[in-house]
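Here's what a typical entry looks like (PE family protein):
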Amino acid sequence: LTHGGSGGTGGAAGQWFGSGGHGGDGGLGALQGGSGGAGGSTAGLFGDGGAGGVGGTGSVSAGNGGIGGAAGLLTGNGGAGGAGGVALATGSLGGAGGGGGKGGSLVGDGGAGGAGGQGDVLGGAGGAGGNAAGLIGSGGAGGHGGFSGATGGAGGSGGNGAVLFGNGGDGGAGGTGYIVIGGNGATGGISGLIGSGGAGGAGGDSGVVAGSGGNGGNAQLIGNGGNGGNRGIDYTTAAATSGIGGHGGALFGQPGINGLP
């Protein structure tokens, strides 16, 4: 009654082909929601990782989302992380989003991070995007931070691109903190040798202190740097800063654009 049960882990895929199963969602709890289960990994050569389960709702704290499963040994995309659970009661905390699974060891994208859940005093943080672990593929985008009446959740960082070809994932935006503090936007992922860096996430808006924007990811050899995220809007302190654009590639490429002043 007080604590929701955790979701089960998704099943692993077959030896050669097939995708991992999705993780189960966390259960509802009167006090604390259960965590989402992890997505199943692909034990074989080809296939995508399973998505993580969603965190359960709780009146005091919500459950965290499950992590995404890893992709196949050769090709496949990492599973998306599950969203964090929602908590709406006074004084409650939103659940964090699960991180995205890594891409295949040869070709494949990293999974997107799950969004953070809404909370009364604190929104859940967004999950980090999964890295593209192979030679070709882009990093997963980071999850958006959760909304809160007080302090918004931070965005999740973008995953890095594959070693050779691939873009970095965009950083997640910070969640709105309606009264007090907006969540900070996250940094974009770094590209592979050829590819662009991910954009930084925007900072969350707030009535008092807005969140700062995340920096853009750097490009390594050939490619443009990611743009910096814009700072959030507030009407009191104006203390937040915008993100800085990432460096262009060492051989060819333009730097990213800084966020708005």
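The mean pLDDT is 91.

More examples are in the samples folder.
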